[in-house]
Amino acid sequence: MAARVAVSGYMATDLISLTPDTGIIQAMTTLLDNRISGAPVLDKNGRLVGVLSQKDCLRAALNASYHQELGGIVGDYMSTEVETIDEDLDIVQAAERFIASPFRRFPVTRRGRLVGQISRADLLRALVEQWGKRRG
I need a labelling partner for 129 at 20 to 30 A (CA). Which of 6, 70, 91, 109 fits? Predict the structure, then answer.
């Protein structure tokens, strides 16, 4: 039987995060400047309280086009029902979660605290590496 491989070995840990009170324009600029499609939103105690995605930003921009004013804060637009993956979850189980979900990335937690993020590409790399080791 193959050894179990955890998400923690493939997740990104150097994350750009936002706060709920960050201005939405500043948040959009942060996403664009860093070429990322979303960022975790942390409260003042470092707890994960949401995620702001490009889709959320588009919603804010579309809202602005109707009202002729772009403004507000991340907390007004972020998704608050955040699905997370535990850092110890096996990569195969994580892949199953991605297949069943519309999300392109999941925040990774350890005992409820954000420790990283795993994307579809990260998991694909993990699976290819594991299958390559088995064939080699």
Answer: 109
Q: Quick check: 14 and 34 in contact, CB under 8 A?
A: no
Give, as one character, the DSSP assignment of residue 9. Answer: G
pTM: 0.84
Contact 109, 84 (CB under 8 A): yes
C-alpha to C-alpha distance for 42 and 3, rounded to whole angstroms: 34
Instruction: Kindly report, residue by residue over 24-49, the tens digit of the pLDDT.
Output: 999 999 999 999 889 999 999 999 99
- For 71-96, letters b (16+ CB in 10 Å) and e give eebbbebbeeebebbbbebebeebbe
CATH code of 7-135, in short, is: 3.10.580.10
52, containing H or E segment: strand 48-53
Give the domain ranges of the chain: 7-135
